[in-house]
Amino acid sequence: MDINVGLIGCGYWGKNLIRNFMETENCWLSAICDTNKGLLEKFNKRYPSLSTHTDYKAIIDSKEINAVAVVTPVHQHYRLAKEALLADKHVLVEKPLAASVAEAKELVALAEEKNKVLMVDHTFLYTGAIRKMKGLIDAGEIGDILYYDSVRVNLGLFQEDINVIWDLAPHDLSIMDYLLRERPVSVMAVGSAHVKEGIENIGYLILNFDSNLIAHFHFNWLSPVKIRLTLICGSEKMITYDDLVPGESLKVYDRKVEVMDSDEAHDKLLYDYRVGDMWAPKVELMEALRLVCGEFVNSILEQRAPLTDGESGLRIVRILEAAQRSIKNNGVEVKL
Fold first, then answer.
1. Which of 107, 138, 205, 326 has its CA 20 to 30 Å from the CA of residue 231?
2. Based on the number of CB atoms within 10 Å of its own CB, is 273 exposed (0-12), middle (13-18) or buried (19 or more)?
3. Preceding omega of 146 cis (within 30 degrees of 0)
4. Averaged confidence pLDDT in the chain
5. Which residues lie closer than 8 Å to 157 by C-beta, 6 or more apart?
6. Which of 115, 121, 91, 158 is closest to 20 using CA atoms?
7. Partners of 334 in the beta sheet?
8. In the predicted structure, residue 268 carries a pLDDT above the cut 70
9. How far apart are CA 120 and CA 317, in angstroms?
10. Statement: residue 272 has pLDDT above 70
11. Which H/E stretch holds residue 151?
């Protein structure tokens, strides 16, 4: 049985989902919706089988459509996802899941009540590099994780309804949430708005854990260069992940520091620096968004929770909301 999908929002990211849904097995993308009529005409010429609508109700109310993808601005996620779930449809939502913890919790509870799949498009978790990192960490190759450091900066794209943290942080927070066994217990954040008052275009987050692990994130819309870099330091090895280096985005360094026992004065510590090989593991090169669409469809057919389910989306929104509260209170620590 094919899953009949309707998509709401055909803009910057929606167009990519349209293409991938059209090429996903066991799936039939039958309808799309957007308020831009010119945009709908372009898609209709490329995909004549699509029915196009300017009113999203046509998709929500359709008896034939049993799954809906919501690819709209963040402030619309909760309302559209809720209406789709109430109409007994499975839902895929663009990140972040909702604009508040209260909204996200309600969507998760409603999906469970209706026995429907609620999935969040945390695309990076479906890339070969992140999956390879997960395998290395779970296999104990890296050892105990000591720190997690991530930078995601570029010039634009400025958003009108959310700040840089709500826009960019879901990517890196979802990667961290997937890779680490521990959950953060508190967050501290600072940020500044230089372009539009009240909309921070630069932000720094620090996440604290019950162990000695610490995570730091830097997000910026006002950078002269584009950087997407993650450093993970383990007790045995270290990892760098640079999303902008095709073919060798992931590198593993056999490097560590140990304190040596010494017969000398107790106040003089000796350190052993191990500098071994560096290698770039082979990673599967496949469009992650194709896997997102496949996971959504297969989780419905197999009646199981998807990898990036509503609960994972809720965890990310909880961090985002706490970070926003911290920023507005000059970096105060907020418990999660």
1. 326
2. exposed
3. no
4. 94
5. 12, 167, 221
6. 121
7. 187
8. no
9. 11
10. no
11. strand 145-155
Contact 89, 65 (CB under 8 A): yes
How big is the chain, counted in residues?
336
User: What whole-number distance in Å separates Cα of residue 161 and Cα of residue 73?
Assistant: 8
CA dist 211 → 179, 207, 332 (Å): 16, 12, 20
pLDDT at 264 (0 to 100): 56
Q: Record the tokens describing residue 243, joined without a space.
A: 């999303």
Collect all residues with Cβ–Cβ distance below 8 Å to 115 and sequence separation of at least 6: none
C-alpha–C-alpha distance, residues 167 and 202, integer Å: 11
Three-class secondary structure assignment of 73-102: CHHHHHHHHHHHHHCCCEEEEECCCCCCHH
Q: How far is the C-alpha of 126 from the C-alpha of 128, rounded, in Å? A: 7
pLDDT digits (tens, 9 = 90+) for 187-205: 999 999 999 999 999 999 9
Give all domains of the chain, ordered by start, each with its CATH number: 3-123+288-308 (3.40.50.720), 125-286+319-335 (3.30.360.10)
Residue 8 tokens, joined: 């709401």
pTM attached to this predicted model? 0.93
Per residue in 238-266, pLDDT (tens digit) is 999 999 998 889 999 997 776 666 555 45
Q: What's the token pair of residue 284?
A: 């599967």
- For residue 200, the one-letter residue type is E
